[in-house]
Design goal:
Blueprint: E1 12-13, E2 17-25, E3 29-36, E4 41-48, H1 50-53, H2 56-71, E5 80-85, E6 91-96, E7 100-102, H3 103-110, H4 115-134, E8 147-151, E9 157-161, H5 177-180, H6 194-198, H7 205-221, H8 231-240, H9 255-264, H10 276-284, H11 289-304, H12 310-313, H13 339-367, H14 378-384
Helix pairs in contact: 4-7, 4-10, 4-11, 7-9, 10-11, 13-14
């Protein structure tokens, strides 16, 4: 394979990508593993072969589809890092490097894939295709070799869709290389729809739904629906003959899942699912829990793009819940609620009404001072009275089921409920606020000192002392 490639390990592309290994050579291009010498990270580079560089239509288609792949932000699409043109004039695009293997290798190794894993893989691919269809992109070359099982850090695998809009051969040794080695067809004939056989450009999203149905058929049975020795024979079978039934290769596939695949393989586009969202909803009945997460993402993408239909709107996780409505147990159940389930909901509503009535009466008694044990408890009387509460009608796309109540063995006349006495609210008595008395401080009275008047003695003139104390 590497001898046919125009590059060899060690070559430097675009001045910063060192080629490490040639991964594959197709009908129009080549894919190599390289290292970004500036960022020291592994990348994958795809570019056109030299014979198609001068083909203006092929060059423009390559660049247009590469730019379109950048618009798809799904985690299930190989991320495009860079797009440009080499010095030779060949367009190229740099993508994230993926470790793992494609679904074609898994089929060749295991033969038949388990139903649970097959649906999980396909729904993950549908997430990427839903974003592509929402952006107006039709893949036109869906096949197991373009669905890559990328190994994650935790050891799990995640489907990555490759090669949007670019026809590419499978690797040497695969069973369909002789049928896909052609540049006159856009796509791989084993997985092409009848209308794509007639005209490559006159296809819409339903051509991808055909391819996904063929892939699911092959994952479950280990073979494609149509097998022929020559290209003209294969084309004639796809255009006019019915495919071999799945039961001829595997007998444990549910009839409902067989019907989904048969609908995908309708000869006319109008016979298939009108959108990828409706196809995903049909698969959700057989999908494990992790697969139903993919169904919800797909419907949200299609609803946001305005491409929803009636079946998409019936998905419980996307549809707004109406008052009094219940969610169907199965996502695939679009035929209205089950009658048995409706009866169970009515009985639950009646039981809830009893509990609510008892709670209301208990609250009334509590407010009216129901602490007197001698008073008759109204709760017992209320619980003994049968109350019939009609549930609100369930809004659904299907006609509402008629629920016929089962009459009791001994019908009793409905007792007349006495009008309860009005509840008189007790006046609110405010408790007096205790205030600490002010302590009076006793003060001892001030003793008043009364000064006695000073009586001056009369001066004795005979005294030998004057009034000033001196001798006269």
């Amino acid at each position: 394979m590497s001898e046919e490639a125009p590059v060899t390990p060690g070559d430097i592309l675009v001045g910063k990508y060192r080629v490490e290994q040639v991964l594959g050579v197709g009908g129009m291009g080549v894919v190599v593993a390289a290292t970004d010498v500036n960022l020291e990270r592994r990348v994958a580079i795809k570019f056109l072969l030299a014979e198609y560089v001068q083909n203006h239509e092929a060059t423009e288609r390559f660049l247009r589809e590469a730019r379109a792949a950048v618009k798809i932000q799904s985690e299930h699409v190989a991320r495009v890092i860079d797009v440009g043109t080499m010095d030779t004039g060949a367009p190229y695009m740099v993508m994230e490097y993926l470790e793992g293997h494609d679904l074609q290798g898994a089929i060749e190794k295991s033969g038949q894939i388990s139903i649970e894993n097959a649906i999980t893989y396909l729904l993950q691919a549908c997430e990427a295709i839903a974003e592509a269809h929402a952006a107006g992109i039709v893949h036109r070359d869906l096949k197991p070799a373009n669905l890559f099982l990328a190994r994650q850090a935790d050891g799990s695998s995640k489907v990555k869709v490759l090669d949007f809009g670019i026809s590419k051969n499978t690797s040497a040794g695969s069973n369909d290389q002789s049928l896909t080695k052609t540049s006159s067809m856009m796509g791989s004939p084993l997985y092409m729809s009848p209308e794509q056989m007639r005209s490559t450009k006159d296809v819409d999203a339903r051509a991808d739904i055909w391819s996904l149905g063929v892939i699911l058929y092959e994952l479950l049975t280990g073979r494609t629906p149509y097998i022929a020795d020559t290209m003209p024979q294969l084309i004639a079978m796809i255009l006019s003959e019915q495919h071999d039934p799945i039961s001829a290769s595997r007998d444990d596939v549910p009839d409902g899942l067989v019907a989904v695949i048969d609908k995908c393989l309708g000869k006319e586009p109008a016979l298939r699912y009108p959108s990828i969202a409706e196809f995903a909803i049909a698969l959700s009945e057989f999908a494990p829990g992790r697969g139903r997460v993919s169904v919800e993402r797909i419907t949200k993408v299609m609803n946001a793009a305005g491409m929803s239909s009636s079946s998409v709107d019936l998905l419980p996780s996307v549809r707004p819940a109406a008052a009094g409505s219940q969610t169907n147990a199965s996502w695939g159940n679009t035929n209205g609620p089950d009658k048995t389930e409706g009866r169970g909901i009515i009985l639950m509503a009646i039981g809830g009404a009893f509990a609510m009535a008892a709670a209301v009466v208990f609250a009334v008694v509590s407010l009216s001072g129901g602490g007197d044990d001698s008073a008759e408890s109204p709760v017992v009387a209320a619980s003994a009275v049968p109350v019939t509460i009609a549930p609100e009608p369930v809004k659904s796309a299907a006609p509402e089921p008629v629920v016929t109540p089962v009459p009791s063995v001994e019908p009793e006349p409905e007792p007349v409920l006495e009008k309860p006495a009005p509840v008189v609210a007790k006046p609110v008595v405010k408790k007096p606020v205790y205030r600490k008395p002010v302590k009076r401080v006793y003060r001892k009275p001030v003793k008043r000192i009364v000064k006695k008047p000073v009586v001056k003695e009369p001066t004795n003139p005979a005294s030998k002392f004057s009034r000033f104390g001196g001798r006269k």
